Amino acid sequence: MVQPAFKQTTWYKSFILLLLGFTSGLPLALTAGTLQAWMTVENIDLKTIGFFSLVGQAYVFKFLWSPFMDRYTPSFLGRRRGWMLLTQIGLILGIAGMGFLNPNDHLWWLASLAVIVAFCSASQDIVFDAYKTDILKADERGTGAAVSVLGYRIAMLVSGGMALWLADKYIGWQNMYWLMAALMGVGILATLLAQEPETAVKPPRTLYEAVIEPLYEFFSRNNAWLILLLIVLYKMGDAFALSLSTTFLIRGAGFDAGEVGLVNKTLGLAATIVGALLGGLLMRRWSLFKALMVFGILQGGSNIGYWYLAVSEQSIYSMGAVVAFENICGGMGTAAFVALLMTLCHLSFSATQFALLSALSAIGRVYVGPVAGWYVESHGWEAFYIFSIIASVPGLILLLISKNTLIYTQKTGEFLRRTQFIKQYRFALYGLILAVLFFICSLILVITNSLPSLELFQSIDFIQSINIKLLSHWASSLFLYGVIIGAVSLVVGTILDYLALRKTTH
């Protein structure tokens, strides 16, 4: 029996977070890359495989049901661990169920289970992020973020490369999914061994309060919009560099695919783990602001290595050094960034606020691809990687402007409240809400537009009568308008924050 006093130590918390981080990362590849590989091996058509990628949208829109998990508490294990246990049981059943199916014979049953697994996985992420936020003290968040990232990365390796190798060489695809389901038992063990966070902060009393209050609480803070833009831009330079890194190493630098795969999958992963652990260690000694600034400079500056590869002669050793250094710096930046998200969450609404902030942070990673491709085509690889370094500068400037806010919050655990431009801020908030609605509508249209091309719906007249060109036009238009409205809202809110900051400090 683990003593209650030992459960309060940083070492024990880190061990639990390592195990929970592992179970958080394990299901991702099983509904994405690994599942795509299985369908490819079974000769499923490319349109259907592409349609399956929409399963991952659960991770983007998890904030839609996160208030439910903030509001309601299961009757066992407490507010956070109860939900973790339920989601983990759902994941075990879903992943094991996928092992009973075959893409050729049970394609749409497999699709249904993949959706369930993705939903349960996204839900587990919601409550795990909230658990981290609630259980860790301010001086423990760096270490906690680092070990959870470590567990997550190990799981991605296990359910990605290792799973493919096992399925192809030894046990087959179905047995591999059963093995992955068994490994999810690690999460159940960690949940039972973990301690429920002790906090005097009460959860929302109603579902309405769980939906509205997190937004109201966050946007009533001083520098809220500055912080939002910081979250979007902090890893923007890193996102640009990584968006086309594999393509660059193969097509731009002239390495073969095997060399790139070996370096990225082994050395790159190991370097990311080292970076996360090193970042966690340094954050125990540094303030959050100092860690974010130093790691932000390093992760932006490390892109110079890719520029060097673009202008120098091909060398596997140079590539290894560049990939290792970039991943170490990126791992340090990720550890600090996760700690930032935890710091910004109010304990009453940690599940909802973390889900919203993490979804916002994914914007750079998800949407820089088209811009990156266009830039490379227009200006070449050398200019692109110089640009990726420049793209990291705005995030650092915003971090510098937000310095006092971050230091105050880390020291006190409280948030400075807004006193200026109350009415003007509402327009920015309404714009952001409208942008989210446009994104959701665009996604619905994209899904609807994909149905006529799938074999399952070939005989359904209603679906075949869908005007694909019209829906495609509307989907792209809504997405574009959403991007524009969201960007304008962020800029307006940020300007108001800056003006309010000048008024309160002068």
From TrEMBL:
It is a multi-pass membrane protein. The chain crosses the membrane at residues 47-65, 85-101, 107-131, 143-165, 177-195, 225-250, 262-282, 289-310, 316-342, 354-376, 382-401, 427-447, 478-501. Its main location: membrane. It comes from the Bacteria. Keywords: Cell inner membrane, Cell membrane, Cell wall biogenesis/degradation, Membrane, Symport, Transmembrane, Transmembrane helix, Transport. GO terms for cellular component: plasma membrane. GO terms for biological process: cell wall organization. Residues 13-406 form the Major facilitator superfamily (MFS) profile domain. This is Anhydromuropeptide permease. It comes from Proteus vulgaris. The lineage of its organism: Bacteria, Pseudomonadati, Pseudomonadota, Gammaproteobacteria, Enterobacterales.
